[in-house]
Amino acid sequence: xxxxxxxxxxxxxxxxxxxxxxxxxxxxxxxxxxxxxxxxxxxxxxxxxxxxxxxxxxxxxxxxxxxxxxxxxxxxxxxxxxxxxxxxxxxxxxxxxxxxxxxxxxxxxxxxxxxxxxxxxxxxxxxxxxxxxxxxxxxxxxxxxxxx
Length: 148
Prior knowledge:
By secondary structure, the chain is mainly alpha-helical. Helix content is 80%, strand content 0%. Helix 1 (3-32) runs antiparallel to helix 2 (35-57), helix 2 (35-57) crosses helix 4 and helix 5 (96-117) runs antiparallel to helix 6 (129-147). The radius of gyration is 18 Å and the shape is globular.
């Protein structure tokens, strides 16, 4: 199968599961008395799942390559932790749709900047009026979803 098609399918599934992650972690947060505790449990389960997948796929990190990484390359788990805690906190207060739309709007705003500067080697794509209009439409979507 075409790698681009696989990538598209993977991000659609990942995005769909993101919609499940908020209410799942919000429910867990209620039971364990904190969105931070819920995130900790969520990451522990995710870590076990990834260890099992790595074992099945027999993947091993290239330790020499990891030593050459810039500090920002190690922060992905931190970003994920903020995402999980924020969604576990926000979903009971804002609802799933509003939480997800706000997260997507935040992702789009920062992604324009990251693309513009080619952060961490991503292909450079300048900020254009068309791309800004797309983000403005997303923000408009936030307002419409919230009003709904």
